[in-house]
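As a warm-up, study this chain.
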Amino acid sequence: MDRMTGYAALLVLAGIVLSGIFAPQLAPMNPFEPNMAIRLQPPSMAHLLGTDALGRDLLSRMLYGGRSALLLSLVSTLLALGIGTLVGMLAGYFGGRTDAALTTLTNIFQGIPGISFMVAVAGFVGPGVTGLLLALVAGSWAGFSRIVRAEVMQRAAEPYVEQLRVLGCSDGRIILFHLLPALGGTLLVLGTLRLGRGVLAVAGLSFLGLGVQPPTPDWSTMISDAMLYYRQAPHLIIVPGAAIILLVSSLNLVGQMLHRRLDVRQEVRG
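Now compare it with the structure written out below.
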């Protein structure tokens, strides 16, 4: 991937984020107000992306729908990254029985099929944002834990950590003020790459009716609602589907760019 592709992806991602933040100012119409007199209209000057089955402006709903996709993916990624980092650091730093117990727990969660586990958790808790977040976090923290554990084990074996112990630094101080900051670049790359998969997971669960509930605008819910009208109004599926693809692609490309920069920085330091 060349540098221009990465910067283009970053620009697209920034546009999606900003359009979601300023949706109330950018939306030409109320995304919640139905108007059955103009239902299922194709794109036109009055409605640039057409209208849905209830006559709501699709452009307005698209702007608001990006909010839920990004916010839910971001919150779930931060929670999963926090739990995975904590477990991985404790296992990698202390080793022994602590490592064995936490690694066993991690292996159990990683051994469960991801999407099946998330559907089961969301279905058990019930449809809605709470169940969706619990499902996403429970299905993704273990992957972060294994990577952090390997990084911490490598860094904890370096001479400067032993020197810190000799100087009287506590384990908590070493972990919080020395090991954790050293993992900043790795955690940033992991989080960015996970955001793309989080968007797809949110889309899948919401499409099944286990995520964001109507009438809240959400891209995947909009696709699910439009399945009955795919012949009459294909734009109702094409537009939100293209937005999800664009968002996931831009997140993955930005994550790859950060990964390459991290690798180059580590080579220079080495």
